[in-house]
Specification:
The chain is an alpha+beta fold and 431 residues long. The chain has twelve helices and nine strands. The chain has a four-stranded antiparallel sheet, with no helix packed on it.
Amino acid sequence: RTMAGGSNLPLFRKTGPMFARCAARRLARPFCSAARSRSRPEPWQAASLNAAGTRAMFSEEHDIFRDAVSKFFADKVLPHHAKWEDAGRVSREVWTEAGKQGLLGVTVPEEYGGPGCDILYAAVLWDEQAYSGCFGPGFSIHSEICLPYIMHYGSEELKAKYLPKAVTGDGIVAIAMTEPGAGSDLQGIKTTAVRDGDHYVINGSKTFISNGQLCDSVIVVARTNPGAAKAAHGTSLIMVDAGTEGFSKGRALKKIGLKAQDTSELFFDNVRVPVGNVLGEENKGFYYLMNELPQERLALAGLAIAHAEICYEWTRTYIKERKAFGGTLSDLQTVKHKMADLKTVISAGRAFFDNCLQLHRSGKLDTQTASMAKLHCTNIECQVADDCLQLHGGWGYMWEFPIARAFVDARVQKIYGGANEIMKELIARSI
């Protein structure tokens, strides 16, 4: 198929003839006719790595959803993304529009206002956001990282309070784990929540919090038993609403990439919240985090491998058009061999990721496998972005080209969600 608006390319600033030509160039999005047959091709067998109608685990219903998601990013996100990069955050309107179109909380059960879809629908969203090159809206953080904590551990009262608004986009949720002195080592957190009658009093600070500026509520990871022998035995997850006295949002942090995705400092100064705001049992928060982190890492891996695929396709188009040495770059053997290497690496990563997705769908994705997916796919993403930028030459270093954005957007993937060095430690435990 050809996408509505025709584009897999992020918005270009039209500042010259070269940029105007790039803005006008649109990648055709082929649709595999075999998708309607019993045997769907794999991406590497299709006309492009981002072709619709591929991958055996998906159905025509997923393809219809994919069309809607792709159109949403083309129509509602891409035209505004450059100004959101300048502002350091997306608009509230894009969240409510996503809610209207059923793109938030797709796995939330129907009784709480969601569509009750399986994880494959979420994976479609990961793919299409990466293919758009527009990472400003923190939809996956909200939907597949934060909401499962409420769905799986929240009381009926908390589910009824937060989930319906999360699905409509009227209640954006963030999770506050990282602190100035504690990143991948979650047992090093210092934020405390001290019991005072029917309330907790929270004190501490968090940093690098995605959706931090826009959030209406935040899941705070805090120590509720500072005297515990291990932090893992005394950590809880507590819902805190924006506007609660003592809870303040600090500066929006300026990053080298993901410029339109708001990232914030959060401060808690004697913040009083009801005991009923605890998710699950007191002092069990660390175990809940360990239970849910595999899905978080799977989501990051999914975004990563799809991002690598679109970087490849952007570059494939560029080298076929770029004139050099009496022909095009694609005529040069060294370029063709590099693209062959990249396609092979990406395709192997896609096959592994899809296997992990199937494991998760059947409840069999373990910590080690999720860590391998995150490690492998984000390494591929960064390698592909770097190599594809190189193939663009000087133009690849220009912000107006999507590969330049991809290069800086990809880099943090090896850091958040647990640094890749931590992923190796988790994998090594089984060796």
